[in-house]
Amino acid sequence: MVSRRYDHLMRRNRSEAVGLVVGAAADAAVGDPQRYHPVAGFGTAVSRVERLTYTDSRPVGAAFAVGWIGAAATAGALARRAGWLGTAAATFTALGGTSLCTVGEQIADALDAGDIEEARRLVSGLVGRDPNLLDESGICRAAVESIAENTSDAAVAPLFWGAVAGAPGLLGYRAANTLDAMIGYRSERYLRFGWAAARIDDGANLVPARLTALIAAVVSGRPGDAWRAVRRDAAKHPSPNAGVVEAAFAGALGIELGGRTIYAHGTEERPTLGDGHAPTAADLRAAVVLSRRVQAAAAALAVGGRWWMG
């Protein structure tokens, strides 16, 4: 009996390792679909239910977040029954690193062509800042910071949770991160209702963010500079996770990030991260290259980890 269960777990975990490979390869090849993306559908459903159930309350917000994350993890458990194909679909759904890098390159192209309005339009899809207030340096800084943070959120973290828990981990994490992006703000509306979503996302990213920083330090070829920036500057950032990866990217790229940041909900004075000049379009391209290297290394580690669990 024990032997049969062990064999079943071994086959399932190795099947999920194959699914991680296929899903990551599919994301690298085609990126996010422009229409009918499952995450977009999830977000639409969340918005509709929020309008019906919103209450300015932490307990209600916590129940809202836990319910949606649980539903997504259950969908992952059902996908796992389809074998490696189900895990591949969950992996492709959860990953967003390729599209992130594509937008980064498009912003750099627009800036090199002198089309700052197009660059503003593109960067508005990555950050919550008012793009009309950003000059070329501000656009580059916003894009590099987003690429750094989302290399963790949209690539390393889903792969990490896929390695730990398979398809339920992949979709459960993606739900938590999407909820944080939708309601995890310190605005008047979401300060209490979105509190649990923000805290769950922080917890889910504690290990992946530091793994992202470690991988970035190694693959950049400048581990000393990256870790110096992390040790000195990361704790100054208001986010326990974004500061780690942004500092690592700043150190690895030899640039300075942070500073005055204007959001829809107000202005924040962010600490500076790293040493060097303000990011340029060339630095944005370098951030894209670094992100792709980190994503490839994380995929290899996740697949190897899930296979080893088998």
Write a concise keyword list for the protein shown above.
mainly alpha, two-stranded antiparallel ribbon, transmembrane helix, ABC-type vitamin B12 transporter activity
Present the secondary structure layout.
Layout: H1 2-30, H2 38-53, H3 58-80, H4 84-94, H5 97-112, H6 116-123, H7 136-183, H8 190-193, H9 195-220, H10 223-233, H11 242-253, E1 260-263, E2 266-269, H12 281-309
Helix pairs in contact: 1-4, 1-7, 1-12, 2-7, 3-4, 3-7, 4-7, 5-6, 5-7, 5-12, 6-7, 7-9, 7-11, 7-12, 9-10, 9-11, 9-12, 10-11
Total domain modules: 1
Major beta sheet summary: 2 strands, antiparallel
Q: Mean of residue pLDDT?
A: 92
**Helical content band:** over 70%
Shape: globular
What is the H/E string? HHHHHHHHHHHEEH
Membrane topology: Multi-pass membrane protein
Family: Belongs to the CobD/CbiB family.
Main location: membrane
Pfam families: CobD_Cbib
How would you sum up this structure, described in words?
There is one protein chain. 75% of the residues lie in helices and 3% in strands. The model has no long low-confidence stretch (mean pLDDT 92). The two termini are 17 Å apart. By secondary structure, it is mostly helical. The protein is built from twelve helices and two strands, in the order H-H-H-H-H-H-H-H-H-H-H-E-E-H. It is globular and about 65 Å long. Helix 1 (2-30) runs antiparallel to helix 7. It has helices at residues 2-30, 38-53, 58-80, 84-94, 97-112, 116-123, 136-183, 190-193, 195-220, 223-233, 242-253, 281-309; strands at 260-263, 266-269. 50% of the residues are buried. The protein has a two-stranded antiparallel sheet. It has one domain (2-309).
